[in-house]
Write a structure and sequence with these properties.
By secondary structure, the chain is of the alpha+beta class. It contains eight helices and 17 strands. The protein folds into four domains: 105 residues, no CATH class; 78 residues, no CATH class; 93 residues, no CATH class; 39 residues, no CATH class. The strands form four sheets. The chain has a five-stranded antiparallel β-sheet, sandwiched between helices. A hairpin with a 2-residue loop joins strand 6 and strand 7.
């Protein structure tokens, strides 16, 4: 038997961080408080009345607004749903109205899913996620899909803090990551729902561009994947439009750097790549004034190169290596023909 939505949140909050909430069941005269998780209060603290509970919850919400979700005990799917409410009197009136209709109500903090973080699902050893959406993003396509270990490692690199979730096993765990602390435990990871399952381990579909690679830029995502699988990536700092700078890769012990513009999707030769430091903000303003094409600027440690080039797979699935002597920047943008390379 499935637990009531508020009861399942109470169970999840025992082991992790959940969005702040207070839940109510229908009462004879006034709604009756069931569960609560409010920052600064003990688990399931009983407030003196509905007004106090909603006021305290509203005061502790980073966005300063609440959502109201109503349901019946036999069906956890939402009935009436109200988003982003800021007026305490209106919120209390709606809770009383829905309760009077025999509905259970959960009041929870509004969570900004467009804050530069991601939402997603962990299931069967695979994590899928995307920015600017709820965990239901996995039903829309275009999500990043990776093995759980790789995905959590990549997200820790990008956001500089670990993803704090429970072991989902074969079950399905909905989560979200946020740049500023949220929820009852004031953490960066929220857990939204867990469903037990006997499903077999899933298969990750690692491919890009996807919605997350567009957030940090195509080159950034590709280099992160290369770093994850153990390839020697030069030390790289990503200066992104939407999230704080982060770094990864190995030092090259060179005192020189390369500046690389990082478009949302691969566009070889269109935007600047230059040896030596350039003002990244000026570069963004000049080459992408609308902010729609370039997601980030990369600063990479230089590699003193005797030869440089590229390895690609041809139509017959054979590796083809082409390049030139030196650092290869002219070759990579088509200004220099490939040379005969030593074996």
């Amino acid at each position: 038997m499935k637990l009531r939505k508020d009861k399942s949140l109470d169970e999840l909050a025992r082991v992790g961080n959940v969005a702040q909430f207070v839940s109510y069941s229908p009462g004879r005269v006034r709604p009756h408080q069931e569960f609560s998780r409010v920052a600064g209060f003990d688990a399931n603290h009983q407030f003196q009345n509905i007004s106090e509970g909603l006021r305290v919850l509203l005061d502790r919400c980073p966005e300063g607004t609440l959502n109201l979700r109503s349901f019946t005990p036999d069906n956890p799917r939402s009935r009436d749903f109200h988003y982003g409410l800021a007026d305490l009197a209106q919120i209390e009136a709606l809770v009383c109205k829905m309760s009077g209709e025999g509905l259970y109500v959960i009041a929870n903090e509004t969570v900004d899913v467009a804050d530069g973080g991601v939402s997603g699902v962990i299931q069967g050893g695979v994590v899928e996620f995307a920015p600017d959406d709820t965990p239901r993003c996995v039903e829309k396509g275009g999500t990043a899909s990776m093995s759980l270990g790789w995905g959590l490692s990549l997200l820790k690199t990008v956001y500089s803090f670990p993803v704090e979730t429970v072991d989902a096993g074969r079950g399905r765990l909905e989560f979200s990551i946020h740049l500023k602390p949220r929820g009852w435990r004031r953490g960066h990871t929220l857990m939204w729902e867990y469903e037990a399952s006997d499903s077999a381990p899933a298969m990750a579909a690692l491919k890009w561009p996807n919605r997350f690679s567009r957030l940090i830029g195509d080159k950034t995502f590709g280099l992160l994947v290369a770093d994850l699988i153990g390839l020697p990536v030069p030390r790289t700092t990503c200066i992104s439009r939407r999230i704080a700078p982060f770094s990864f890769g190995q030092p090259t012990f060179s005192n020189e750097v390369w500046i690389r513009t990082c478009p949302r999707e691969q566009e070889p030769g269109k935007f600047t790549t230059a040896k030596g430091w350039l003002d990244p903000f000026r570069l963004l303003a000049e080459e992408d004034p609308t902010g729609e094409a370039i997601s980030a600027v990369l600063c990479q440690s230089a590699v003193p190169a005797a030869f440089a080039g590229a390895a690609i797979m041809d139509a017959e699935k054979r590796i083809v290596i082409e390049g030139t002597s030196g650092e290869g920047d002219s070759f990579m943008v088509g200004k220099r023909l490939p040379e005969r390379l030593p074996e």
